[in-house]
Model the fold of this input.
Amino acid sequence: MQNQGVSDLKSTKLLSIIDSEGTKAFGKVYNFAPIADWSTPDVINYLNHAGVESCSPTLPNQRIPAYIDNFGLLLAIYGEGGSDTCEIVMDDAMDRGGNSCNGTARYGCTVCGMVSKDHSGLSMRELPRWGRFGDSFTRLRDYFIRTSVDVQYRAFHPRAMCSVTNNVYLQPNVLKANVLEKLVYFGAQMTEDYKHAHLDFKACYERGDIDNDIGVKDIMNDTSMSFKVRKQYRDAYIARMLKSPLYDLFSEKHAVLLSFLWTLHGVNTSPYRPVKILSNVRKGKRIPFPKTNDELNELRAQQGLKAWDHKDVLNRDIPDARAYQLFTPPQDTLKGLQSSLNRKVTETDLINLLPINMESYWLQNNKSFMVDSNGFHITRLTNLPLYTRRIKLKYTFDPSLSGRVVVTVKI
Done:
């Protein structure tokens, strides 16, 4: 609100601003935070009394208009994220002076690294309705955090070139290829897991056995909510689970786009590697999900090592960019060079200007097969891999054969 300039903007001041601008105010959008001064209990109390069927009894002439009958489901979900019972949605909340989750719930990006520990995610996973999906997101989030703050996971990447000195500048602002491949594996594996959970839930619904689903049973047996709220939660839960997988992190469209981007930016991996990884996962090949930060620190403690994020262990020092010269800057003009050679400049002359022999470099690294970070065979640095069969197809149109297209195959 401070960035938008509305933290101290009251309604009276806003009205005076609008009046002072006169006709200029027509069609203009003003930023205003009407609940900026509200406390958490104020917000919860408002939601508690809003709607024609509000969670707490309200006199007809004191009801707060709302776009739904009540906000019991919203309050219940916030209670889940706070590892607390939102007593307001219980039938006897008013008799016992119920309160809210005190603002401990935090919702947003699932893999957000702005907090050291995702307490809301951990709290919700304790409930079978959400715990059924496992802890892969927590593991991925912690791995994101470790790779984003530790320089050991970074690689130097060419990002700029000087046209005067012919220098290419490499900066450590990208992740290493093996780290990127792992992230693709994790995303593909999680997508498959959520797809199977969706299909299993859908099959259960079609069998007419939905009330025995682990998530639905957990909701309907949750006495921290009133029956009315439980019914709302159940209907919303079933509708969402039937619609589609909860997450679609990595599919064909992502694999193709990422393959293009990796090729464009020169990521040191084989062509169409993301597509191959997606295919591997769908065929059953998987890699273990990374350890959580807590698990990693526990393991390091057993080995007598300091925590991974200890100041003596974590490498936050970003090295300077490196400059590599592709061509030696010419000391003379093209005409001057031709004059000194007493002939036309050839390709060999240009190659000799290179500080390294590119041909011998590629020959030295031109291995038929290499193994990636997960032990799978991949092809690198070759135009055609070994054991590849070339097939030539020839299409011809012959009117004498009833207008059929003739395909000739040559192996």
